Fold:
Amino acid sequence: MRFLITAGPTREAIDPVRYLTNRSSGKMGYALASAAIKAGHEVVLISGPVNLASPKGCEVLLVESARDMYTAVEKCIQETDVAIFSAAVADYRITHPADEKIKKTSDELSLKLTKNPDILGSARREFGFNGFLVGFAAETNNLEENAVGKLTAKGCDLIVANDVSREDIGFDLDENEVTLFYKGGKSAAIPFGSKSDIAIKLISEIDGRIAR
Structure:
């Protein structure tokens, strides 16, 4: 099968020097790409800015902003059987980025933000994707409620949720612990372990679901 996987953060320019971003390292997405390749799948990895070596054996598209990632996903998703959206995409961007570096001339600085396109939400509605759709939910509270809400709102087959308020898992770490929420109401936990091991289990779970 052909997998499309997004990974890493996005960057939204404030001026030519500064940007808005988040703490995502891309490690989970890159581990998923490696696991899918090892399982015999064809993989396209769309990655925001990370400090990771590209997995061998897949096509890698490097992007910067949320709109860049949206465009790349729109271009690639039609030829995809499974789409896994593990990237931490910025919800907002600077409405009018400065053309030159902003100087420190006052005690306060206000930035106007504009909502970015919803890449996961667009998979079904805008791109017409009919394959197996997987989203990620990085939550700090009400994990199950928020994950199930996202599952329904975005038309996903599966949401992979983790509690990023914990100091031992999540952003920029090598370990994770996730809960899987499926369309239809079932859930399952993948216990604490390396992101590589969790990725292998997740790809195996997806393969099993599709084979049923």
Summary: The longest strand covers residues 132-139. The chain has a mean pLDDT of 96. The CA atoms of residues 174 and 194 lie 6 Å apart.
